[in-house]
Structures are given as C-alpha cells and as structure tokens.
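Why MTH938/NDUFAF3 family protein? Reviewers of the renewal asked for a concrete example.
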Amino acid sequence: MNDIGHYPYQVGIDAYGKGGFRFADMSHRGSLLCLPTGMHEWPVENTAQLSLSSLDPVLALSEQVDVLLIGLGGDITALGPDIRAALRDKKIIVEAVATGGAVRTYNILLGEKRAVAAALIAVDTVR
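Here is what the prediction returned.
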C-alpha cells in the first residue's frame, strides 16, 4: 500500500461514526484497514464494494494475521464464497459483523496481542 492515508502502527480505535474513525489522537474520514503494517485508508464505502481484491492487503500479510474482522457498516450481508475460500486457504479466521461490533472485538484482540486485522466500513451513526 502507498503512504497516503497511512498511520505506520497498528493501534486501537478510540471512536467511530460520523463517516470515520478516531485513533492515535487523530481523525480519519472514510473506511479503514487495520493491519500489522499500520492503519490504512480503505476505498470501500459499502458492502457492494467489498471484494476479494479489496482484501488483497490482508491476504498479502496472511502470515501475520490469524483473525480478520470485517465491519460491514450497518448492512449485514453474507461474504462471497470466493472471499471465504481465499481467507480459509490462507488460514485466516474471518468474522463479518456490523462495524461497531468489529471495532469492539478488534480492540479486545489487539489488547490481548493477538494477530488481528480489521477491514472496517465507515458508518455515519453509532448504534
């Protein structure tokens, strides 16, 4: 990934909503990939844009990731079989839930020093 929209450390998320996220005393507008290489902007705005290619950065780091949390925004939808198969082939456990639940679980697993990544679609309102 390029350095535009990139924070070089993987950190917990302090808040979400209003179309973005807060972490490391900063505000990020838009969706977010939380990876062992840091926090990256993610050009996915809704579940229709969620694809195997949008998760390429996660697959590229598969040796450093045991669990991937996908925050689906406010839409709960099934992941495509190609996405599930690719993650399974890389031995990555995937959990796809609403963004709020993904953020909370990500923070817990990161705090436990687990090999976790998150792909989070930004939401406007917090439930």
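The CA atoms of residues 5 and 41 lie 5 Å apart. This is the kind of structural detail the renewal will allow us to pursue systematically.
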